[in-house]
């Protein structure tokens, strides 16, 4: 038989320890401050030791309680994850959060292959630019760009996020069939405020280039930037991996051999305590293999 305090009291202690404030814990749990104090006393009686010290009208964890609280938080995460996995696996749905660029330019064209491999797993695809709220939005796995890795998340590096200027064949023809690096300082650019422009131009030797001197429209994602470039709206700074098919089919032209990077990459990320989730593991294995195959030279 396990010799642990009542789980209701443990949950209250974890919240009170995280906030080091009984009032804040009560608000989070929908309880009164008196009820929180009562649950803390139950654990102190069970253990025979004090959990909090009162100092200048505030409560402070004892050293032993602080160590225990850290482990309790992880334990409650695992309990929550166990029940979440039961619900999710019963539903058989994998919720993927990804950026509009990764979804529109690459993943949406291939996700059907994953479902053919695992017909018992339905896929829900969310396109979001910001950080993924795994618990709040019911997200199983996210694909994001950044420097990574991130605390409390299991991550797998997919590919480097590099970039180079591209435009449509018609736009290139309108410039006489050739665009030099210095020409970019006078041509309409797509999202010239993006740091990738300054990085690429400086590496091309145009050290006098800065954001204020560059002209063009601002857009909110590389997916939109690529389509604007295909429509002849200007020159966009794009990641070749995403636009391989459009270049092959002559909708986009890569203007220069130089490809630059800010050191960022695309990653798969999911809560560390969900490493054993069957559907997450299968999706990660499939995505890593699919990208590896795609990146191999034909």
List keywords for this structure.
11 strands, two-stranded antiparallel ribbon, single chain, 11 helices, 298 residues, nine-stranded mixed sheet, alpha/beta, elongated
Describe, in plain words, how this protein is organized in 3D.
The longest helix is centred in the first third of the chain and has 29 residues, at 63-91. Helix 1 crosses helix 3 and helix 2 packs across helix 3 (33-47). By secondary structure, this protein is an alpha/beta fold. The chain has helices at residues 7-19, 22-29, 33-47, 63-91, 100-105, 111-117, 169-174, 195-203, 222-230, 244-248, 278-295; strands spanning 52-55, 58-61, 93-98, 122-127, 141-146, 153-167, 189-190, 216-217, 235-238, 253-254, 260-271. It starts with 6 loop residues before the first helix and ends with a helix. It is elongated. The strands form two sheets. Strands 3, 4, 5, 6, 7, 8, 9, 10 and 11 form a nine-stranded mixed β-sheet that branches. Strands 1-2 form a two-stranded antiparallel sheet.
Major pleated sheet: 9 strands, mixed
Residue-averaged pLDDT, rounded? 88
Strand content: 15-25%
Overall 3D shape:
elongated
Number of helices: 11
Give a quick precis of the structure:
This protein has 11 helices and 11 strands. The chain starts with 6 loop residues before the first helix and ends with a helix. By secondary structure, the protein is an alpha/beta fold.
SSE inventory with pairings:
Elements: H1 7-19, H2 22-29, H3 33-47, E1 52-55, E2 58-61, H4 63-91, E3 93-98, H5 100-105, H6 111-117, E4 122-127, E5 141-146, E6 153-167, H7 169-174, E7 189-190, H8 195-203, E8 216-217, H9 222-230, E9 235-238, H10 244-248, E10 253-254, E11 260-271, H11 278-295
């Amino acid at each position: 038989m396990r010799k642990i305090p009542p789980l209701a009291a443990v949950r209250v202690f974890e919240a009170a320890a995280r906030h080091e404030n009984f009032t804040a814990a009560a608000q989070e749990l929908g309880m009164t401050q008196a009820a929180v104090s009562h649950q803390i006393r139950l654990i102190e009686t069970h253990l025979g030791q004090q959990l909090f010290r009162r100092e200048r009208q505030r409560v402070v964890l004892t050293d032993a309680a602080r160590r225990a609280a850290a482990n309790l938080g992880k334990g409650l995460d695992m309990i929550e994850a166990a029940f979440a996995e039961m619900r999710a696996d019963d539903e058989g749905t994998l919720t993927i959060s990804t950026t509009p660029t990764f979804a529109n330019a690459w993943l949406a064209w291939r996700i059907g292959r994953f479902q053919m491999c695992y017909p018992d797993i339905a896929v829900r695809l969310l396109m979001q630019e910001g950080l993924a709220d795994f618990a709040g939005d019911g997200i199983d796995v996210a694909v994001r760009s950044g420097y990574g890795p991130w605390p409390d998340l299991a991550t797998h590096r997919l590919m480097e996020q590099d970039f180079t200027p591209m435009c449509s064949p018609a736009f290139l023809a309108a410039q006489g069939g050739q665009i030099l690096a210095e020409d970019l300082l006078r041509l309409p650019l797509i999202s010239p405020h993006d740091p990738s422009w300054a990085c690429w131009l400086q590496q091309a030797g145009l050290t006098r280039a800065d954001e204020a001197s560059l002209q063009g429209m601002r857009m909110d994602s590389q997916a939109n930037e690529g389509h604007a470039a295909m429509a002849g709206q200007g020159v966009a700074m794009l990641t070749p991996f995403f636009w391989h098919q459009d270049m092959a089919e002559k909708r986009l032209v890569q203007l220069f051999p130089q490809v630059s990077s800010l050191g960022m990459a695309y990653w798969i990320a999911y809560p560390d305590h969900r490493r054993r989730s069957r559907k997450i593991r299968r999706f990660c294995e499939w995505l890593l293999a699919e990208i590896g195959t795609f990146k191999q030279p034909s």
